[in-house]
Amino acid sequence: MIRSRRTALSTGAAALTLALGVAFAEPAYAGEQPSNTQGSNTEQSGGNDETGIYAAARIQYSGSVAKNGGAGNVTSADVNWTPPPCWYAPYLGAKDFKKKMSKDIEGQMNAPGMGGHAGAALNELQRHYEDDYGWTDTPGYKDYNVEKDGEGMFWAGVENPNEPDLLKRSSCTDLPFWVDNGEAPPPQYEEAITPEILAALAYQHMQLPDTEVSLKPEGTTKVNLPTWAWLDKAVFDEVQATASIAVPGFALQATTTAKPVSLKLEPGTDDAETYPASGECTINADGSIGEPYAKGKADRTPPCGITYLRSSGNGTYNLQATITWEIAWTGTGGAGGDLPDGTFGNDQDVTVQEIQAINR
């Protein structure tokens, strides 16, 4: 039976939201469960949750990623860009989905006080999966599609656990839908997992190296004495993070690569001059930034550095050295493109002393 979406949801959006919120409350619901260590190639497979149901759609991370599935240390240079707050991904095969969904629906129908709009919404939910009850662009299913078990999977919404906005994180609220093996999800599900979404998640989990800028003089310098700053190519290089998902009949992956392109120096005081004047030192042809200090260069202006014009007194200046990384990605099927530049910086304390003159 096919009816309009308006008719199908006529019991009220609030009641349907209540029914769905109760039915899909468990964290195992198509959840993302990364468990990675920086620089590792940690693999994850699906596993059984407390109900004994196989939850397959778990994203695997490898490469230079934050530990324990946390967000990495990259800050997007584009303040308007954010990783996806949620997405749709393979959840369960037909038989397992029937076991899970029918149990949840039955439990809620038997809950005290479950009547009125909420009860009607649960009835429509049950009819949708059992009795071929659907609406425009959303076909119903006969007996949870069990006759096609092994030929595809039900897909469901996944929350990004690193998204701080609850409303955004929980915005993938469409009912679980069936996708045949080897087929793309229906086009109306714009948040269905893609290589580009995986690339954005790899970006979010990427851990850039904790790089400390080399300074000469180191730690303590003098007023009006140029301080040279540099980064050797051997100290930092390209960084890669990969996100992948693989279940029977469906597999995607994307690798995000960060390449250092410049170093921004902020002296921690207005009483200083930077070299170049912008404070942004670009990468050299050999992949290094700046130039190491060596004997005989005392009278030269450093290509990358700082001259402090006033003593730091009894304290220090907080030198901020921020590296900008150019970020691109490649993925399944030859897909690829650019992501916003990322930045990551370190603070270093610098003591600046007055040069004492001696009168004889």
What this model shows, in words?
The protein is 17% helix and 32% strand. It is α+β, with helices and mostly antiparallel strands. Strands 4, 5, 11, 13, 14, 16, 19 and 20 form an 8-stranded mixed β-sheet that branches. Strands 10, 12, 15, 17 and 18 form a 5-stranded antiparallel β-sheet that branches. α2 crosses α4 and α3 (94-109) packs antiparallel against α4. The termini are far apart. The model is unreliable at 1-55 (pLDDT under 50).
Percentage of helical residues?
A: 10-25%
Backbone shape: elongated
- Count of DSSP E strands? 20
Give the CA-CA distance, first to last residue: 104 Å
Structural class: alpha+beta
Mean pLDDT figure:
82
Please write the string of helix (H) and strand (E) elements: EHHEEEEEHHEEHEHEEEEEEEEEEE
Low-confidence stretches: 1-55
Beta-strand content estimate: 25-35%
Supply the number of helical segments: 6
Instruction: Please give the largest β-sheet.
Output: 8 strands, mixed
Rg of Cα set: 28 Å
In short:
By secondary structure, the protein is α+β, with helices and mostly antiparallel strands.
How would the blueprint of this fold be written?
Blueprint lengths: L1 E2 L1 H4 L4 H11 L23 E2 L5 E2 L4 E4 L11 E2 L9 E7 L1 H16 L6 H15 L3 E2 L16 E8 L6 H4 L7 E4 L14 H11 L8 E3 L3 E3 L3 E6 L7 E9 L2 E17 L5 E4 L4 E3 L6 E2 L14 E4 L8 E15 L4 E18 L7
